[in-house]
Queue: 2 jobs
Job 1
Amino acid sequence: MNKTSLKKLIRPLVRGLHAYVPGEQPKIAGLIKLNTNENPFPPSPKVLAAVKAAVDGRLRLYPNPTAQPLREKLAKLHGCKPENIIVGNGSDELLALATRAFVEPKPDREIIAREFRDCFPERWTVQFFTPSYSLYPVLADIHGAEKNAVPLNSDFSLPSIAELKKGNGKPPEGGTPNGWNFAAALTFVTTPNAPGGRGYPTRELAALCKAQRGVVVLDEAYVDFAEENALKLAFEFPHVLVARTFSKAYSLCFQRVGYFVGHSDLIAALHKIRDSYNVNGLGQAAAVATLDDLKYYRANFKKIIATREWLSRELTKLGFRVFPSQTNFILVQPPLFPAEAWLLKFRERKILVRWFSAPEVENYLRITIGAPAEAAALVKAARAIL
Ligand SMILES: Cc1ncc(COP(=O)(O)O)c(C=O)c1O
């Protein structure tokens, strides 16, 4: 089969997709890695022991298909029932499942005209603010859904409901004047925001949730570094799901464990469409052991927050514009050279940070808060570059 006929075997939608671009995982040793918001501290010794203890002949067996022991522990922690929780292969998997469960793929024009005359484009709309997690548009594209990307205010704060209603731009088909759609099938909100770092008051999120008629996912990947969390909204509003992950605050990126909390009907819908054994056994063991040692992690949050504040002050002194952050990273606008040039200059000094080419963030760098010595090395490198 030649290349052209092979290509034809791939769905046209998939042929046209641009894949999500993850941050670099370098092969070279000795780099300071501040580009993917990983935690600088290792998992607790108890977690490492639990994972090691689980590595034996049982690896031939399938893991618990619903991550039941983990869901029971999480339910206890959050004051709900296991039916209110689904665990995923990282929260990324659950964000994808939510897109598949709650959003229609956009039908062809002729099919819309023929069969969906009484249906609204909201049904195939995935909505999110920009900038926020760059995976959301990719998930919408994979699913063949319509994207509705609406800008945050320039300081990354949330537009108020009145502002969203009033509008300031061109409406999409069937949307309100600034493009915000209160009936979108699925709305993702990254809170605290990424890559901006800004934390959102629960009352603002509550107002937004109240105004939305479709499903809202509050993506709290970084919430352990923030002043507030909005978990209670998952219990107040049946159409709101809160996403959490063990990756960032709990030093478990490698194991891929995340979860959603929400109404049992929505959670049951997600369970229906997930893979039978979507959470690997060692990941489940690690996450269960993590919940038995939260004291260890809470001490680490404090250290990371202290380093974040120190680094923000030091970079400000050097002329960087630093956005206030409630996460384990900071977004900065560097002085003197374009942000992309700084990315390369840091790299020459063996420090990896993240730069995004999207126009709304192309002037900024996102810097993960590493260990104190790593943050100090970054400041030293910045001084040398200047
Ligand atoms: C906002 C946000 N949500 C979710 C995730 C995914 O986390 P996980 O490792 O649980 O898939 C990330 C990871 O970068 C993120 O930045």
Job 2
Amino acid sequence: MEVADGVSVADVANRIGSGLARAAVAARLNGKLVDLSTFLGPDGPYDLEILTDKSDQALSILRHSTGHIMAAAVRRLYGNVKFGIGPAIENGFYYDFDLPQRLTDEDLAKIEAEMARIVKEAAPFVREEVPLDVAEALMRSAGQDYKLELLREIAAAGAAAGEDVAQADARPAPEADQRVSLYRTADFVDLCRGPHVPHAGKVPAFKLLTVAGSYWRGDSTRPMLQRIYGTAFFSKKALDEHLARLEEAKKRDHRRIGKDLDLFSFHDEGPGFAFMHPAGMIVLNEMLEFWRRIHREAGYVEIRTPTILSEALWHRSGHWDNYREAMYFTEIDKATYAVKPMNCPGGLLVYLNRPHSYRELPIRMAELGLVHRHEKSGVLHGLLRVRQFTQDDAHIYCLPEQLQDEVIGVITLVDRIYRTFGFTDVRVELSTRPEHSIGTDEMWEHATGALRGALGARQMTYKVNEGEGAFYAPKIDYHIRDCLGRSWQCGTIQVDLAMPERFNLTYVGEDNREHRPAMIHRAILGSIERFLGILIEHYGGNFPLWLAPVQAAVLPVSDRFNAYAGGVMQALGAANLRAELDDSSDKVGAKIRRAALGKIPYMLIVGEKEAAAGTVSVRDKAAGDLGALSVEAFVGRAREEVETKRLRPQAQGPA
Ligand SMILES: [Zn+2]
Ligand SMILES: [Zn+2]
């Protein structure tokens, strides 16, 4: 389309059609996201894409814009506010505020009402580009210390890079005159690169969710701000569906279920380090027993390497240069040691311990390795984000020509493990060579070809992330989707091109000479603690029988039947079933409620009739009453459910 100089993106949308103009939210101009009000200058041709409410990008622009509206409302209501940052995040947005009073749920309702007024006013988002010093003067006079800090960083980055980092404008800003963009909504002025919706009236459905403390920049030595989380959608219906999912997620929050079922806890004495309780250990150990068995079957051997290893090793592995910030250090005999953040260097020492012949390869060496990685305190989140966890790691050393088959083997294993836990909606991504990388073209082609070939052989559909591999490895990543539709990155398969060189790995070939083996790193569950957290939420605490901490509750209807119940307990114990006897003096109704709250899969109720007939009345938490079964019949049924690792119906979707 040919347009006159000075025509805006909105004008172009209008010329294409009034429907498009109405649905337009923002645009992508020469690859950059811009406002609809952006003018097309004389420097065409332009590559222009109008983003409507159908695009994910538009949704995140809507949400971010709603963050500005929230900030404007907070400013109107509370006056003396210092503003932090307010980005869009997955599923919503937040804004950080520094204000004297503590915000409560009533405040959220008040802020929502004020936001609704701003939406009704259809307050425009007005973009203004000003020199950095003008923005600084404005923020200083407004007492906006956090914005001043951001401006100082922009200035420093701009000076270093010689370019304007804050700009999203299609035209480059003139050099030396560093400019930043400000956006005005109602009477709130924010430092922001944009883009935004053209006016507040474009926000059809929003909701504020929670307020939580949050350190400025996630740093516990900086001030604690108040972060309000909210979300926005293009329709009321989409918002309502999302809120229903959130409600379900809240019920399934692993931290809450972990407490209710006494699975684990966290303490100030070890921030980010989980304390696993007896019930939690039962689940973890069952997971690991299964994991070990299936790995043995797949030809893996298991090793264990030390948690603390000398600093020199981490220099050699490259972790010192690339990963030091996330590592913990300690001292032994006046020498520095590191607490391992990864298992590979230790594993490599095991491989290097003696020479290897081509006949031994592939060697599949697994390690359930306890690693420590520093995370800022602000991002710790129950079991899902911890500082200490067990990786279900393995390293495969093989002949270069075995690489593809080995990857196929890993893919098969991943598939089997995820299915067993009930994850069938799995997304796979292949990340290829990044711009900055080590190794030759030939090495990359061979490694990436093996990954592609393996995915092809297993007829997997996958997305390619061009150039997003690690600098030393192309990789396959797995994302599993839980029953609430949330996606979790868990498994990874990487072909390492660096470590075999750095550690001078060799094997003796058929020709009696030394050669370099190929090396695969892979994890399937990722962190077993995190995977447990995901499982708890996926199952809503209703574990399949094989994982349930208590598999059956034996409930005598009165203490006259405690002796018979004791016999049932013995039979269950002999069949290696985990059972609990409730011989309290409570009424059976209370016992049933308690067992239900404990999410125990089976309740076995015993009274006069059962004691006389040698039966139990079975209530399945998922399927309801099963009637009376002989003790042997129940044991057989339960054993079969355990051995086949059958999933319970609760795992299929929200209740
Ligand atoms: Zn903004
Ligand atoms: Zn590794």
